[in-house]
Amino acid sequence: MNASVFGSARAMSSNLNGLSDLLRRAVVEVRSGSSGSGTGIIWGGAGLVVTNAHCVPRGAVLEVGGDGKWRGAQTLAYHPQHDLALLAAPSVSGPLLEMRDPESLRAGELVFAFGHPLGVRDSLAMGVVHAISRDERSNYPRWIVADVRLAPGNSGGPLVDAEGRLVGINSMVVNGLGVAVPAALVQRFVERALSRRAA
Amino acid sequence: MSPSKSGGASSTLAELSSQLAAAVERAGNSIVAIHARRRIPSSGIVWRDGLIVSASHTVKRDDEVPVTLPGGKSVTATVVGRDSATDLIALRIEDAKSHVAVKADAGALKVGSLVLAVGRPGSEVAASFGIISAIGKGWRTWQGARIDTVLRLDLAVYDGFSGGPLVDASGAVLGVNNSALARGTPVTLPAAAVDRVLDELLEHGRVRRPFVGVAAQPVALSASIVKHHELADDTALLIVSVADGSPADSAGVLVGDVLLEANGKSLSRPTDLLDALSDVPVGESLRLKVLRGGTVKSVSVTPTDRGAGQ
To answer: Domain A102-188 falls in which CATH fold?
Structure first.
């Protein structure tokens, strides 16, 4: 068979390797006490981690792990309605992820989830945007619903598009579909939390 | 966070992603939401001008069926007909010329081809993505319809997707998805099979299926009988009942007869008889080779329409 038949499949495969490398540097594992763990996204390049609120129970002793090292972390802010938490983790750093505007997402676009499902570190899963669930009153995107396979441990991890831009934070599984908090809501949460602290 | 280049992936992936989204958008222009059951709506496809095809089990009413068109317009559809054996329903709406689906030949698909399932379980379209995992030939639904080719999918057919299309990477419709037809595993009825059912529904209001009126079970034939009659197979079908007044009854078929062949094809399982029947157009006859009292006889039976008079 002609080698060029596989050309774009091979190129796509190498694109996926690149995406996986980027995301591996952008996440940490979040551990709370002896209970289960989730995934966190290194925010703003260094010092901050965003994860799901349900991954970091109030009062729990937190550790974030990457490169085989575990470091202490403290919760700076919670947003229970959006299931978000912001952690201070002074010694972690990673690449800046570009944000994807949820309004520009289209059903059928490729998306990728990265995290540590069932304790399997640095797992990549591919899927497509299934639907955008909007707030009934404001009509603003409330959840990104993706046809992507998630498991416990993916919580708090990134959902990105084909160019590695952050689409949302994987938060739950509903009827087999992955549900993520849109990146724009995460960004607003972080900005508010930091400005409150600065004030 | 200030925007910066993520730089993780490049063109091939991004290109595929935008092509998939465009395919969903193109397909979405012919997908309607059907509000005819509790919980969430199901999907339907504008198959021809003014005609919608969907999965029969998702449409729980036979009178006015509320439908939401791709643009968001609400219309009322009427039921043209249903075929329970393929779980298809045809609905008529006023005018939907601009929404008629572009179809593709499912025959060109191979195992591993990229496909999308698209539905409209509400006002917006929704999608899932995967590959063709198997192409089944000569499959028979549990209600007895024979389908030449059935597509098995490595993708999720979510709530509300039944009745919606499986589309190729260009957004052209390959067939109708159904999660109930194969007891749980999602399958797709190819467009060609849908067209055949639709033609029958339009012409007769239902799909005619040939009926002869016998029940049969496999029976082993002794070596001496096989040798004596020079039979191709050592298994045949024993007639265990003949319905009163049925075509088989009129043709003189008796309980205890052993069916050897139908139209020259040997019969060893009951489905062989169904297959032979499926090949006979309504109104034409079926030649049966029967073993009765040690001699082989030929009997001609003219099947009637199973659904007639119901």
So the answer is: Thrombin, subunit H (2.40.10)
Q: What would the mean pLDDT of B12-33 be, rounded to a whole number? A: 94
Residue A1, pLDDT > 50, answer no
Task: State whether residue A93 sits within 8 Å of chain B by CB.
Answer: no
Distance CA A156, CA A32 (A): 13
Is B113 among the residues known to form the active site? no
What's the rounded Cα separation, in Å, for the pair B45 and B54?
6
Q: Is residue B200 located within the same domain as residue B214?
A: no
- Please list every residue in chain B whose beta carbon sits closer than 8 Å to the beta carbon of residue A101: none
Both B104 and B227 in one domain: the answer is: no
Question: What one-character DSSP code corresponds to residue A157?
Answer: -
Structure token pair of residue B256: 């205890």
Counting Cα atoms < 13 Å in the Cβ hemisphere of B67 gives 32
In a domain? residue B2 = no
Q: Structural domain of residue B236, as residue ranges?
A: 210-305
Q: Is B123 on the interface with A (CB under 8 A)?
A: no
Domain boundaries, chain A: 102-188
B266-287: per-residue pLDDT in tens? 898 888 888 888 778 777 899 9
Please state, rounded to an integer, the average pLDDT across all residues of chain B. Answer: 88
Is B87 catalytic? The answer is: yes
Which chain B residue's Cα is nearest to A8?
A: B12
Element (H, E) at B116: strand B114-119
| Gap from B4 CA to chain A (nearest CA, Å) | 5
Q: Give a yes or no: residue B3 inside a domain.
A: no
Q: Which of B43, B54, B57, B257 is catalytic?
A: B57
Instruction: State pTM to two decimals.
Output: 0.78
Higher per-residue pLDDT: B96 or A173: A173
Specify the 3-state DSSP secondary structure of B6. Answer: coil
Tell me whether A46 touches chain B (CB under 8 Å). Answer: no
Q: Pull the structure tokens for residue B42.
A: 């199901």
Which residues of chain B does A130 touch, with a Cβ-Cβ cutoff of 8 Å? 126-128, 158
Statement to judge: residues B126 and B247 lie in one domain: no
Regarding whether B185 and B47 lie in a shared domain, the answer is yes
Confidence of residue B5 (pLDDT cuts 50, 70, 90): very low
The phi and psi torsions of B90 (rounded to 5 degrees) equal -115, 135
Q: Which of B5, B6, B26, B166 to mutate to test the interface with A (most CBs of A within 10 A)?
A: B6
pLDDT above 60 for B309: no
- Domain membership of residue B226 (yes or no) is yes
ipTM over 0.85: no
